[in-house]
Each structure stands twice: as structure tokens, then as C-alpha cells.
């Protein structure tokens, strides 16, 4: 009987797009502009919408930025005179009358390491047009 050709448990295919951050930056700048305009329209609702969630981690001497693209809702609250953002989820809250803008990168998860980006192979297949023309190297 032949053994299945699958990666070991917990391992998944990842690709490094060399210089891939340059491909994302103009798209993210456009997204931010559209989302800022939308947030200005819904200002009185007490909610705020972000196109990307970023988590910063130091790995060795490098700072890795984990980016998750989608539509992330935050509720604005005041506590002790300070403005706080409380995560509300990815579904539009009932109190927001206007539909949010679309996010062409919705569902993309990646890691930024300097000017490179590391993406899962499945995400790369879905968003290959974004990284067209950039060298791609399989991560070990």
C-alpha cells in the first residue's frame, strides 16, 4: 500500500514573496483611504471598521508583523476619560445603517519580515495576482 504524500502534522506549505511588501503597500493605502471615509460616515454609531489587524512579535533579532486582512469591527467606549477600542467581531453590528466597503484582500493572512512577506500556499494561490512579478521561494 502506498503512503500518502502529505506534509507532517502541524506543518503547512509557506512561500516567501521577496519584496512582496511593495506589492501590498499601495493596495493597503487605497483600502485605508476608503475605510477612513466609511468611518467618517458612520462616526455617530460608536463603531469603527479596520481593513487589517496587525500583531507585532519579535523573533530573534527580527520584528515579524502578522497581518490579517478582512473587515474588523471595533466599538468605541470611554473609560475614565480615555477612548478605548473594544473588538466586536467581523459581522456588521446592528446599529450601523450603511453597508461597509468590500476588502479585496479579505481572507489573506501573512507575515511581514522586512520587505518580504510569507504566505500560506493556499493564500498565495488565491491572491497570486497581487504578487505577480515578484520572486517566490518556498519556506523550509
The largest sheet, given as strand count, sense and whether it forms a barrel, is:
7 strands, antiparallel
> How far apart lie the N and C ends?
28 Å
- What order do the helices and strands follow? EHEEEEEHE
Which range best describes the helical content: under 10%, 10-25%, 25-40%, 40-55%, 55-70% or over 70%?
Answer: 10-25%
Shape: globular
- Total number of strands: 7
Low-pLDDT ranges = 1-10
Rg over C-alpha atoms, rounded to the nearest angstrom: 18 Å
In terms of DSSP E residues, the strand content is 35-45%
- What value does the average pLDDT take? 90
The SS-based structural class is alpha+beta
Question: How many distinct domains?
Answer: 1
Q: How many H/I helices?
A: 2
Provide a descriptive summary of the structure in words.
The protein is an alpha+beta fold. The chain has one domain (14-138). 19% of the residues lie in helices and 40% in strands. It has two helices and seven strands, in the order βαβββββαβ. The protein has helices spanning 21-41, 121-126; strands spanning 14-17, 47-59, 62-79, 82-89, 109-113, 116-120, 136-138. Strands 1, 2, 3, 4, 5, 6 and 7 form a seven-stranded antiparallel beta sheet that branches. A hairpin with a 2-residue loop joins β5 and β6 (116-120). 11% of the residues are buried.
